[in-house]
Amino acid sequence: MSFVLKEKRDFVLLLTLNRPEMMNALNLQTLLELRSALEEVWFSRDVRVLIITGAGEKAFCAGADLKERERMSEIEVKNYIKTIRDTFTMIEDIPKPVICAINGYAFGGGLEMALACDIRIAADTAKMGLTETSLAIIPGAGGTQRLPRVVGKAKAKELIFTARRIDAQEAYRIGLVNEVVPRERLLDRAFEIASEIAQNGPLAVEAAKFAINRGSEVDLKTGLEIESKAYDTLIPTKDRREGLLAFKEKRKPNYVGE
């Protein structure tokens, strides 16, 4: 049985966490399969956008598999936390946009995974939160770092200190998710956004993600230099010339990622 299902539609790859009976909790095998799926398409020209969602109707991902973790030694726990942290960093760093379709509960590591994605779309029934302090631990897979960068330091402290769970509308109000849609429309909407992205120059989208991710962590002058260097990589590409020619000829461009 695979814990991460893969479905490709045109240039979009859907990855579905497949442990619905466990609310898609992240055991070690799920993390390894997710990492493998990311590695397979890291340099692929046939995949331009990824979508990550959860199987079933209840949960996107309820976080770490605490039953599995309970059986681990302290060293095994440290290795597990490193694996989950490194996997989410791969999601953040993969040179393709990643859309998170939050179909239900996203708690602890589930929300941390969503925070590592570029765009978050939530079903109107979704609930989310970094609930680790209620278990006498802290978010250990990027939550203390990514949440403040998304919603601001004060709101992130409030949510993490209280371990509060919020609904999709509150998540939208504070900027945690980009959009809220009816649950039955969630994947359709995610694919609509993915298709809109995929029709653009893939190298340009890759460069834009790099410039935004790296530039947002530095001062403005350094960020502008990062943007300039990212732009320079696109000047000699076939896609840039194709974009200009298509504009001149008033037709849709045919980008190939070269």
Structure description:
With 258 residues, the chain is α/β, with parallel strands linked by helices. The chain is built from 11 helices and 10 strands. A 6-stranded mixed β-sheet has the order 1-2-3-5-7-10, with helices on both faces. The chain has a 4-stranded mixed β-sheet with strand order 4-6-8-9. Strand 2 (12-17), helix 1 and strand 3 form a beta-alpha-beta unit. Helix 1 (28-41) packs parallel to helix 3 (74-93) and helix 3 (74-93) packs parallel to helix 4. The model has no long low-confidence stretch (mean pLDDT 94).
What's the number of extended β-strand segments? 10
* Proportion of beta-strand residues: 15-25%
Gap between N and C termini: 37 Å
What is the C-alpha radius of gyration, as a whole number of Å? 19 Å
* Bulk shape: globular
What is the average per-residue confidence, as pLDDT, rounded to a whole number?
Answer: 94
The ordered H/E elements are EEHEEHHEEHEEHHEHEHHHH
The CATH superfamily name of the largest domain is 2-enoyl-CoA Hydratase, Chain A, domain 1
Q: What is the count of structural domains?
A: 2
The largest β sheet comes out as: 6 strands, mixed
Low-confidence spans: pLDDT under 50, at least 5 residues?
none
Q: What is the fold named in CATH at topology level of the largest domain?
A: 2-enoyl-CoA Hydratase, Chain A, domain 1
CATH-derived architecture of the largest domain: Alpha-Beta Complex
Proportion of residues in helical segments: 40-55%
- State the secondary-structure class: alpha/beta
CATH class of the largest domain: Alpha Beta
SS summary, helix count: 11
Major beta sheet, strand line-up = 1-2-3-5-7-10
